[in-house]
Write a structure and sequence with these properties.
RbsD-like fold, alpha/beta, 193 residues
Length: 193
């Protein structure tokens, strides 16, 4: 009898831990990433974070840990997102990253080179770190945020990705809005019979 109860508890343990926001062990972060990206959509965020990035306690924040550096994780995240058709990332980095000097943060020059190579030619937008943290805090109120903590121990190196529709871009949206505005104006300009 005891062994049946124990077996049932062992089967239920992963479900209980998953409900508590627990993510897979460090070695399985790639599998967890593939699983999570399928669940993320428009207005969700992915943060590839440096080692001291704050842990969040809000329900919409999923956290996992990787035993790799930021450039390798960014490369993997972008490869995974490129396999999906439903989302594409808008990539942000901290404006401060450009100004950090190698004398004060040894290894930052090499980090910047590696990060650029891992970006898959995605354009990046620079915002101040505090602005990026505010965007994430705002997003957690209504949307899911996936944080992947890495082993990188350099300041201002976290990479933020805001997910956009993969099948609809801002140019398409602008054209649609222009067309709707034209139709509205034509309707307003019609003479009253």
């Amino acid at each position: 009898m005891f062994s049946r109860v124990r077996a049932c508890l062992l089967l239920l343990l992963p479900l209980v831990l998953a409900g508590c926001g627990y993510m897979q062990p460090e070695d399985d972060w790639r599998a967890a990433l593939a699983s999570q990206t399928g669940k993320l959509g428009y207005r969700n965020w992915i943060v590839v974070a440096e080692a001291s990035f704050p842990a969040h306690s809000r329900p919409g924040v999923r956290q996992m840990t990787s035993s790799e550096e930021i450039p390798a994780v960014v490369d993997e995240v972008l490869k995974t997102l490129e396999l999906t058709e439903h989302v594409t990332p808008r990539v942000y980095v901290a404006r401060e990253l450009r100004a950090v000097e190698n004398d004060y943060a040894p290894g930052i020059d090499e980090f910047r080179r590696q990060l650029q190579a891992s970006m898959h030619a995605h354009e990046t937008t620079e915002l101040e770190q505090q602005s990026l943290l505010t965007l994430i805090e705002d997003a957690t109120r209504s949307f899911n945020v996936l944080v992947i903590r890495t082993t990188t121990a350099l300041p201002y190196t976290s990479v933020f990705m805001e997910l956009q529709p993969g099948y609809w871009n801002s140019d398409s949206e602008a054209r649609l809005r222009e067309q709707l505005d034209r139709q509205r104006m034509e309707k307003l300009a019609r003479p009253i019979p």
